[in-house]
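worker-3 :: picked Bulb-type lectin domain-containing protein
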Amino acid sequence: MATNVVHLLKLVFLLFFSCLWTRHAAEWIYVTPAQAYNSSVGDTLKPGDTLNSSSFLVSAKGTFALGFFRRIDSTSNESYVGISDMADPSMAFNLYVWFGNRGRPLVNHSGMLTLDNNGTLKIVRQGEDPMVIYTSPTKNIVGTLLDTGNFVLKELGL
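worker-3 :: tokens ->
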């Protein structure tokens, strides 16, 4: 009898979390691991590098991707900078674990994530002021997407 109750509780939890997953999955356009790998510019953004709406940073082991994504339910062409979990290449979609500009979407896929030669990480938008994310006190920094899902800025040794 107790075993049946445990199985019933597991089923209820499974159904509950499946509903949450489905709602989340329906909101975003997903990039398959193959799309991210084919459009990858590596795992590191160096001074002067730019990441546009059709390119991605993919972590060294291919576990995470950083790039521009858009919502399925949006009637406009708004996009967001985000990091997605790419751990299971057999999945048809990925989970987004972080968004950098949730409250300020980019219009018409015009955004570019850039690390300029002055050490400033920013999102450049067509016809608008750049969204500065970080300004380094030194110019010699790089941004690397780690296999933990963290995008880390670090100063290079001289």
